[in-house]
Structures are given as structure tokens and as C-alpha cells.
UniProtKB/TrEMBL annotation:
<dbReference type="InterPro" id="IPR002563">
    <property type="entry name" value="Flavin_Rdtase-like_dom"/>
</dbReference>
<comment type="similarity">
    <text>Belongs to the flavoredoxin family.</text>
</comment>
<dbReference type="InterPro" id="IPR012349">
    <property type="entry name" value="Split_barrel_FMN-bd"/>
</dbReference>
<dbReference type="GO" id="GO:0016646">
    <property type="term" value="F:oxidoreductase activity, acting on the CH-NH group of donors, NAD or NADP as acceptor"/>
</dbReference>
<protein>
    <submittedName>
        <fullName>Flavin reductase</fullName>
    </submittedName>
</protein>
<feature type="region of interest" description="Disordered">
    <location>
        <begin position="1"/>
        <end position="74"/>
    </location>
</feature>
<feature type="domain" description="Flavin reductase like">
    <location>
        <begin position="87"/>
        <end position="241"/>
    </location>
</feature>
<feature type="compositionally biased region" description="Basic residues">
    <location>
        <begin position="8"/>
        <end position="64"/>
    </location>
</feature>
<dbReference type="InterPro" id="IPR052174">
    <property type="entry name" value="Flavoredoxin"/>
</dbReference>
<dbReference type="GO" id="GO:0010181">
    <property type="term" value="F:FMN binding"/>
</dbReference>
<dbReference type="Pfam" id="PF01613">
    <property type="entry name" value="Flavin_Reduct"/>
</dbReference>
<keyword id="KW-0285">Flavoprotein</keyword>
Amino acid sequence: MTPATTKRAAKAKASPKAKPTPKAKPAAKTKPTPKTKPAPKAKSAAKTKPAAKARPAAKARPTVKSKSVAGPRPVKKVDFPVEDVRRFLEPGPIVLVSSSYQGETDIMTMGWHMVMGFEPALIGCYIWNANHSHALIRKSKVCVVNVPTVELAETVVDIGNCSGRDTDKFDKFGLTPQPGVMVSAPLIAECVANFECRLVDASLIDTYSLFVFEVVKAHAAPAAIKTSPRTLHYRGDGAFMIAGETTRQWRRRFRPEML
């Protein structure tokens, strides 16, 4: 063998045959990226309508009263002295208030009173501190409110013209005292109704001479319950008004809770 052949043989023994490099797998096909839709164009801002021109205010039409509905007519008035408003605002019938304290009795004529409640039944009474009854009622804390009718008109006026400090009014005017059921003050038998009262609020006496009483017992003549009695109502300046016609003509207009 030639030296060249020998070298080639030795070289072949020395380096084993290299394995052929495996062919690289072809890269996986990637899906094509879907084409993105172009973003919609932003709508241009809506055109605002021009502000409507303000219409000139319509001229107010003169109020025309409907001819189909005849309402009450306005009443023409003149100035009136405020010290005489009692002529229009006297609240109720003239009453006789009887009282008693430590054996002394009195009767006073009173026109200033008002109902202040129903349950309990409350009556507010103005009793001037110059009246003899003022002291008797304040000390005893009781009285009787008696309702006279027009038949006792002269007696009612005369009782108001004298003082219980020096006059026994039951004796002077021939009235009959009857004992109260719930209070120590006497009832006047000749009156059509008698309300026995107890003083429940004295807080306004010093300031306004206003007594607040609770009616604890009531007495009324059957005839006065069925028909309205003819009571006296004082209008000031020596003028009286006598209770007149009673009607239930407008009762149906009231709601039940208002009766």
C-alpha cells in the first residue's frame, strides 16, 4: 500500500462517520392574523337646535265671572271702632255663674265664655277680678254655669247691676238654689241648663282673668234638648239679641267627622 493509502485508512479508522444532521422540521404554519376592522369614525356632535325665541308674555285677560254661577256679592264696609268688636263677636248666650265659699254664695251675669274642648268638656270664662265671684271661685275652685232663657231677661240684667258683697242674690231675685251633685256651688233651678264645673287651669287668671273649667256634671231640661231655647246674647252698648230660628238645612254638607 502506498503511504497515501495508508494515511487515508488510518484517518478513516480514527474518526467515525458523523451521523447526518436531521433535517429541521418546517415551522408550523401560523394562522394569518385576522384583519381588524377599522374603528368606526366618531359621530360628529349632534347639532344643537338654536334656542327657540321666547314668546312675548301673553297679556293677562281680564277675569270674567261665569254667569252660570252666582256667588255671594261683596259687602261694602266702613271703618269700625275696635273697642266695639264685641258687638259682632260675642261667643254665646248670657249665663249666670253661681258660686259658694265658706257659706257665702253669689251669682254673676257673664257673657264672655267659650267652649275649649269636648273630651274633657272645657269652658273658658272671663271673670273680672273686680267681681265678687272672682274671689269665691278662685278659692273654692268650683262654680256652676247656668243658662237662662229670655223669660229671665230682666233678672239677668238686674243681677249684673248689683254686687254679691252686700246682696244675697238668690233671696233678692227669688231664685231657687239647688245643691250640686259634683261641686259645692249651687245650681239655679229656674235656668234650663246647669253645668257643674271645676277649675282645671288657673295659669291665665292673673294675666287675663281667664278661668278654664271642666264640666263634670250637666243638667238640661228635656224641652231644651229637643228644641233650641230662646237664649239672650249680649251685643254691647245695652243691646241684646234673642236666639232665633234654628235650622238643619246645611247639615248634609258637613262631613261626619265635623259634626
